[in-house]
Structures are given as C-alpha cells and as structure tokens.
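If you are new to this repository, start here. Below is one unmodified record pulled from the training split, so you can see the exact layout before writing a loader.
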Amino acid sequence: MKSVISKSKKINDNKVPTMTRVEFVGAPKGYEKDYPFKKGEGLLLLGEIKNMKGHVAVVNEKGQVFWGYHTENFVINSGSITISF
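And here is the target side for that same chain:
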C-alpha cells in the first residue's frame, strides 16, 4: 500500500486527517528534551483525540503509538510511505 501526499502543509484543527503521513516539525521552546520525536521524523497520523481537540495520536516506524501531542507540532508530509503487512 502506498500513500502519496502532494505537498507539506499544516494540519487544520477544524479537520484533522486520519491515516496520513506527517512530519514532526519540533517541540515548543523549552520542551525539546521532553518529546520522543526528532525534528523531521516521519510518523503516521492516526487522527485527533476525540475528547482532546487539537491533540493527536501518531505511530512511529517501530509501531509505537504516542498520543496527546498538539497538531501544530506536525505537518502533512509531501513524501510517500510504504506500509507492508
């Protein structure tokens, strides 16, 4: 399965996409050491947390799930990702 996104863009809080490749753009100033992601790291966006508007769940390449991170820390990635089952 291959998913291709046309260009990098910010995630719109009004309509957070699901199952989309995103890129981590960085942690808020002063919190860099508290985030498990590296700037530029690609992740799979599972979607927005229903009872926490503006917060999302993502999966890294190892299959680890992370939740509660703000949408502004990610952009939709312009590259492609291959998911193998």
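Two things worth knowing about this chain: The CA atoms of residues 15 and 44 lie 16 Å apart. Residues 1-7 have pLDDT under 50 and may be disordered.
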